[in-house]
Amino acid sequence: MLQADAELAALYAPHFRFDSAEPYFPHALGYSVFRGPGRSPSSRFEIDPAGALTLEYAVYYDWDIGHLYDLEHVWVHVDSAGQVIRVEASAHGGRRFMDIGSGLPEMVDRHAVLYVEAGKHAHWAHPHHMSAADRQKLTALCGALAGVEGVHRGNFFAERGAYVAAPKAHRLARLKLQGDAFVPRHSYEERAAPAPLLPWAELECIIPQRITEIMVGLETAQSHFGAIFLDCGDTLIDERTEVKLPGSEVVIRADLIPGAREMMDALKAEGHMLILVADGPRQTFVNMLTHHGLWDHFDAHIISEDVGVHKPDARMFDAALAAAGLSREDGWRTVMVGNNLSRDICGANALGITSIFMAWSSLRTHAPANASEVPDYRIETPGELPGLLERLEGLIKYRVPYAHR
């Protein structure tokens, strides 16, 4: 029976025509054969053969332009004489008949010819069926909206925990897809090598493992910020509100500057590695950041009392790089955010670390004393940082490591 199903799957497998700008092609087609009504094992649809049997093809792609993971479907209904009498295919979560006016799509022998929407992989019986509005929407999906979903979560693999995507995986998937953005050409061609046919039960086992491997591979394949270094005073904490232990330099409490909590939550939600790089007694930062629930937002805490030097000494930044599993060669893909031009910005610049000046406070000068204190970027409030990092991270693949200025 399995051999018979395999022969049927090959005999009726659809032929796909892809947009000439298409960046993604099917990895495999998983087939199921229905000789009576039944529930699809790979979609939400009930299958009711219009003839003697229905062949369901689950078309698996690693990537859709909006997210990692894509599973589309084609249903070929065959009568008792072995003739194709109906073809249906998926389109944006729905199911539509493939019909060019004769009740069927184009046919090559017993193979339905289907046109695949660029990037999104919805099926069309003919490109002319795509309206001007459809094409306009597709241009946005393949361009400005590329990568909007990161790793796909609305499928039964993710819902049952067959693969789990951490925040960083979503961010890296978005970055990869934003780099893949393209303009559909609406001219179509058949791919030379068709995707292999597998029983659905076999493909079902492969997909979650493959998604997991891709997510792991993005760590090295996709350019991204390795770590975000953050100062504390007047970057997170309002120094004017500090209350010190009498007779000590240890701060026991202080207020957050407006937007600091939201900024930290946003950076954590994006899966960034966050490293505190701050001058002062360790207990000061434990007290202030623990009070506001931010101490554990950091993956590591590099504090001058522990290191034995203050910024801009390179040893502070070397310790931060080491804590992130990085070296000086990775400086170009790290960021230092701070309010002190002579310490935060000068120290970061010396190692080729992207420097961002937090200009919220007026306690310290905003005027660089020399070229070594000129920041790469400047923000006025914490709320500006997540958006800036998102824009910069999308550009770092075009940069090359450099000896600073």
Structure overview:
The chain is an alpha/beta fold and 405 residues long. The chain has two domains: 2-221, no CATH class; 227-398, Rossmann fold, CATH 3.40.50.1000. 28% of the residues lie in helices and 25% in strands. It has helices at residues 2-12, 132-142, 156-159, 167-179, 200-221, 260-269, 282-291, 304-307, 314-323, 341-350, 385-393; strands at 15-19, 28-34, 38-39, 46-47, 53-64, 67-78, 84-91, 94-97, 106-108, 111-116, 123-124, 150-151, 188-190, 197-199, 227-230, 243-244, 251-253, 274-278, 300-303, 334-338, 354-358, 377-379. Helix 4 (167-179) packs across helix 5. The longest helix has 22 residues, at 200-221. It is elongated and about 95 Å long. The relative contact order is 0.10. Residues 398-405 have low confidence and may be disordered.
Short account of what is shown:
With 405 residues, the chain is α/β, with parallel strands linked by helices. The chain has 11 helices and 22 strands.
- Mean pLDDT figure: 95
Strand content: 25-35%
Note the main sheet: 7 strands, mixed
Number of strands: 22
Using only CA atoms, what is the Rg? 28 Å
Number of domains: 2
- The number of helical segments is 11
Low-confidence stretches: 398-405
Indicate the percent of residues in helices.
25-40%
Note the overall shape.
elongated
- Please give the alpha-carbon distance between the first and last residues: 70 Å
Give the helix/strand class.
alpha/beta
GO molecular function: 5'-nucleotidase activity; metal ion binding
Keywords: Hydrolase, Magnesium, Metal-binding
Protein name: Pyrimidine 5'-nucleotidase YjjG
InterPro entries: HAD-like_hydrolase (IPR051400), HAD-like_sf (IPR036412), HAD_2 (IPR041492), HAD_sf (IPR023214)
